[in-house]
Write a structure and sequence with these properties.
This protein is an alpha+beta fold. The protein has one domain. It has a two-stranded parallel ribbon.
Length: 76
């Protein structure tokens, strides 16, 4: 599931545990106009009753199947 979002600056609040990568890939794929990405890395768990919907996924396989290059474009 992907949606085109017309955003230029995205702030992701994350704890950067391995399952957060699913969310980051989703937002990168859904943001073709993104110019600035800010990662706000916080505590290990923000919502204490949260459990990941992708627990048990093979993360190595996930990244191998979805690897792609993102180019950084800068204005001069």
């Amino acid at each position: 599931m992907e949606y085109d979002m017309n955003i230029r600056h995205l702030i992701l609040k994350t704890s950067m545990h391995p399952y957060e990568f699913f969310r980051i890939v989703f937002f990168l794929n859904s943001s073709p106009y993104l110019e600035t990405l800010t990662l706000d890395i916080g505590p290990g768990r923000i919502f204490y009753d949260y459990s990941s919907p992708v627990e048990g996924e093979n993360l190595d396989r996930f990244w191998l199947e979805r690897s792609m290059r993102y180019t950084c474009r800068q204005k001069s």
